[in-house]
Write a structure and sequence with these properties.
single chain; 15 helices; mainly alpha
Length: 342
């Protein structure tokens, strides 16, 4: 029992680091999580949200348990010398003969560490067995490569041992986790995949998620063309691209405005106009911002007012976002939803 306690205590620092990272990683992954849950279920459920953020805690823990602590000081593995890789898939037999229970615990830990990954892949992501095996294998190879290369070159030498038997055990853990989730279906049946209809009465959070995705797409289409043009100009003309009569900074500003305007019109007007009010983000979360049927001039007016409202919010977010939030909490609609329609 003392050996087990001693073995587990060696990971206390990694667990604390994972708990410290968890809130920040959760915040960074909030948009992908919300998009996935809306896309999969068509709604937000507390159980699904809790499962998602526990999965993020597992991801943080997986990284910390396998890569932390990092090398420190000015001497030691990873700083002045490396740890040689172990390519023998049966090396664990030698380790058990040499270290006894400690090596057995390490072997079991490498399996147990990846059981949640297989469980998450089956239960939460609803992935098949083959895909789960590939994800488990790819994840462990990525981790072992990070160890072998000193965290992809951040450190001059490997500071942890690259071991082939770790890859085998980790992949086995993913397989065990998948089958555990598969067996759990008898007790807690999985929800069957259904065709999700597009809602024309989206809630505020779903609207925000869709708009968030749209703004990312617009930002990429705003920055991308200008960046390519600037790189091409530097490569072939050996000077920044400029429009006649404008300086390089003025040209950049003008091009940004033009690219933004075109991108906005495409993704917030043209795309939803042709898709019954669903933008790119709206398609992902199964929503339309057209809450009422409008035709002709009514629809044109609706799009014009919505465009003006969103541009105003983007220009003055600190002043207008609180107003919009309060308005929606009271009215359960956006201001432009009150425009006439059928």
């Amino acid at each position: 029992m003392g050996s087990v306690s001693s073995f587990l205590s060696s990971f206390s620092g990694s667990f604390k680091a994972a708990l410290l990272i968890w809130p920040f990683l959760s915040f960074a992954l909030t948009l992908p999580v919300l998009v996935y849950l809306y896309h999969r279920d068509g709604r937000l459920r507390l159980s699904s949200a809790v499962s998602a953020y526990l999965a993020i805690l597992y991801i943080a823990g997986l990284g910390c348990f396998t890569l932390y602590p990092l090398p420190s000081g000015d001497a030691g593995p990873g700083i002045t010398y490396g740890i040689p890789p172990q390519f023998d898939p049966l090396n664990f037999v030698h380790d058990i003969a040499k270290d006894g229970i400690k090596a057995v615990l390490q072997l079991l830990f490498n399996i147990v560490l990846f059981i949640p990954l297989g469980f998450i892949a089956k239960r939460f992501l609803r992935l098949g067995f083959g895909v789960t095996v590939l994800i488990s294998l790819g994840t462990t190879i990525l981790i072992e490569t990070a160890q072998l290369t000193g965290l992809f070159g951040i450190y001059p030498y490997a500071y942890r041992t690259f071991e082939v038997d770790d890859i085998i055990c980790n992949t086995l853990g993913g397989i065990v986790g998948w089958w555990c989730a598969y067996g759990l279906r008898r007790v807690l049946p999985e929800e069957k995949a259904i065709f999700l209809k597009t809602t024309h009465a989206p809630g505020f959070v779903r609207r925000c998620v869709a708009l968030w995705v749209d703004l990312i797409v617009i930002a990429l289409c705003t920055e991308g063309p200008w960046l390519l043009l600037a790189l091409a100009s530097e490569a072939f003309l050996d000077e920044p691209f400029t429009i006649a009569g404008l300086t390089a900074p003025q040209t950049e500003t003008l091009m940004m405005y033009v690219c933004f305007a075109l991108s906005y019109v495409v993704f917030e007007v043209v795309v939803p106009w042709r898709n019954d009010g669903s933008t790119v983000g709206g398609k992902l979360v199964h929503m339309s911002f057209e809450t009422r049927k409008r035709m002709g001039t009514q629809r044109v007016l609706f799009y014009a007012v919505r465009t003006a409202a969103l541009i105003a919010i983007l220009m003055f977010p600190l002043a207008l976002v609180p107003v919009i939030v309060i308005f929606y909490l009271i009215a359960r609609k956006m201001p432009y939803d009150y425009l006439p329609g059928q």
